């Protein structure tokens, strides 16, 4: 067993923090939940502005970078071939960054907005219905994907351009923090990121497991008990542990490809056999509504609360801020992962590819699955909202699927798809957690290390489920992600600092990887001509 490569302070630090939070939650669940909820209210109540600004800033920054000189830098040597074809690349990045939550929220998010709309609109009104269809797409749209993409910039840059074989968040902020990253500050940055990710992943499991259990129950009649849910978690863990163990090119890539094909099949099926026209029209209209109101949605808070006749809805805290926080805790991981799979692409290709494919994928899920449910509601074919309020969201999701032809097959495929989505997020998470606790990653992190983090990822939610408090975990993860926001700033700053320096010094810097844009090329041609003219006049 190779242990020399392990960065023990980070490895142990992350475990201590994890146990330090889990054990008190197990011992004092009620008090623990109280504290976590207080922390959450404090954070989303007071730092909403901050979160919304981070979203907007990430979005603006990435657009700027992709069209600036820095966007032309190629990740890898000039002649490096793309390590993965675009299809597999997009499949992997989507499968890594998006878990089973997209099946959950894609199906049912609209139902929450229908009953609790934004902008103090009357619940169930015509306006509420339009926003119900649009808001989910916004929460999984370009700003969210920008949050995901930002950390990939410095990480990919150092790994492929400066060729440092280290896949760590701390390494990516070296240009700003300098030697400090070699000391405790570096360890703290990595540990905080790992903790946030484990919490964010806990939220994913907390949502995914009951939905998969509902599918299994529907298909087999097995009652939904704690045992069934624990069994499901263990099976999922086994699948993603095997995938992480077999590595990037075998396990993770193959599982992601299958995941994508199955997802396409399910979506096409619902689109074709569901209300095709309604789905197309509503999705397009929703996109228009978002475009029209992009900045309004991206900045909407409730500054007046209940003052002067205003009514506070709590919508921004419960949804937009919560979502941005959730994307933030996952972001460094997705950044590390996207960076790792992007060899041979330019920064611009990586950035625009992630944002565009990511957003498009989410639009398809929300547009097709969500609007199918909305259609059932509006036509009275199924009172989804009534069903959900009585039996819970997972049951409502399965009931929606029952309205399709070949319902049992669709429920089965949907359940398998949920397992796959979960597994493909968790195998890459384990892979990245393993990478971060290593001093060096030449090609892949060590196998036992990958396996270790696969099981650790599942342990916390599993134990907390028995204490009956997955919700606390969900909240705790968001709180845990708060420090990651500052890391996001450092990451953006580091990228600009490093790549600008390299571009300025590019004459002696490894025959860069930097393509010249058209205007510059013309400029240079002109200079050359001037030189020749001068020469001929001599
Ligand atoms: N995000 C995309 O459960 C999942 O789908 C993982 C969730 C951050 C909302 C990511």
TrEMBL record:
A matching Pfam family: BCCT
Keywords associated with the record: Cell membrane, Membrane, Transmembrane, Transmembrane helix, Transport
InterPro entries registered for this protein in UniProt: BCCT_CS (IPR018093), BCCT_transptr (IPR000060)
Compartments in which it is found: Cell membrane
Keyword flag Ribosomal protein: no
Bilayer-spanning residue ranges: 12-30, 50-67, 87-108, 137-160, 181-206, 226-248, 260-279, 321-339, 351-374, 411-436, 448-467, 473-493
Membrane topology type: Multi-pass membrane protein
Domain of life, source organism: Bacteria
NCBIfam families: bcct (TIGR00842)
Family: Belongs to the BCCT transporter (TC 2.A.15) family.
Protein name: BCCT family transporter
């Amino acid at each position: 067993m190779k242990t020399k490569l392990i960065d023990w302070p980070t490895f142990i630090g992350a475990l201590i923090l994890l146990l330090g939070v889990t054990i008190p939650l197990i011992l004092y669940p009620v008090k623990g939940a109280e504290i976590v909820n207080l922390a959450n209210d404090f954070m989303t109540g007071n730092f909403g502005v901050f979160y919304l600004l981070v979203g907007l800033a990430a979005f603006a920054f990435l657009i700027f970078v992709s069209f600036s000189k820095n966007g032309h830098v190629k990740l890898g040597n000039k002649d490096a071939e793309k390590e993965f074809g675009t299809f597999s690349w997009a499949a992997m990045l989507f499968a890594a960054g998006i878990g089973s939550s997209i099946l959950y929220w894609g199906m049912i998010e609209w139902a929450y907005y229908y009953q609790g709309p934004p902008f103090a609109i009357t619940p169930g009104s015509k306006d509420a219905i339009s926003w119900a269809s649009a808001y989910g797409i916004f929460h999984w749209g370009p700003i969210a994907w920008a949050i995901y993409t930002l950390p990939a910039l410095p990480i990919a840059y150092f790994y492929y351009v400066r060729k440092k074989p280290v896949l760590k968040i701390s390494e990516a902020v070296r240009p700003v923090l300098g030697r400090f990253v070699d000391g405790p500050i570096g360890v703290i940055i990595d540990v905080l990121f790992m903790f946030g990710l484990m919490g964010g992943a806990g939220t994913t499991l907390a949502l995914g497991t009951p939905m998969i259990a509902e599918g299994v129950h529907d298909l087999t009649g097995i009652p939904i008990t704690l045992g069934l849910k624990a069994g499901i978690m263990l099976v999922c863990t086994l699948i993603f542990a095997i995938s992480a163990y077999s590595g990037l090119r075998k396990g993770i890539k193959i599982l992601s490809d299958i995941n994508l094909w199955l997802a396409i099949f399910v979506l096409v099926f619902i689109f074709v056999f569901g209300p095709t026209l309604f789905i197309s029209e509503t999705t397009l209209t929703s996109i228009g509504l978002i475009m029209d109101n992009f900045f309004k949605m991206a900045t909407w808070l409730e500054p007046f609360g209940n003052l002067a006749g205003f009514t506070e809805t709590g919508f921004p805290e419960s949804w937009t801020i919560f979502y941005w926080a959730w994307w933030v805790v996952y972001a460094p991981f997705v950044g590390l992962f996207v960076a790792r799979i992007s060899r041979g692409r330019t920064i611009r290709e990586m950035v625009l590819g992630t944002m565009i494919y990511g957003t498009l994928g989410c639009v398809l899920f929300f547009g097709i699955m969500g609007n199918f449910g909305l259609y059932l509601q509006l036509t009275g074919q199924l009172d989804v909202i009534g069903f959900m309020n009585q039996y819970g969201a997972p049951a409502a999701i399965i009931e929606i699927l029952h309205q399709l032809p070949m319902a049992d097959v669709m429920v089965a495929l949907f359940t398998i798809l949920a397992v796959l989505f979960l597994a493909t997020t968790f195998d890459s998470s384990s892979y990245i957690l393993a990478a971060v606790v290593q001093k060096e990653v030449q090609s892949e992190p060590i196998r036992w290390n990958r396996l270790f983090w696969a099981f650790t990822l599942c342990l916390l939610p599993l134990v907390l489920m028995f204490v009956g408090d997955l919700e606390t975990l969900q909240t705790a993860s968001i709180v845990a992600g708060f420090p990651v926001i500052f890391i996001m700033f450092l990451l953006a700053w580091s990228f600009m600092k490093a790549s600008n320096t390299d571009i300025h010094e590019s004459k002696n810097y490894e025959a860069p990887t930097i393509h010249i844009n058209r205007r510059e090329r013309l400029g240079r041609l002109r200079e050359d001509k001037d030189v020749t003219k001068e020469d001929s006049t001599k």
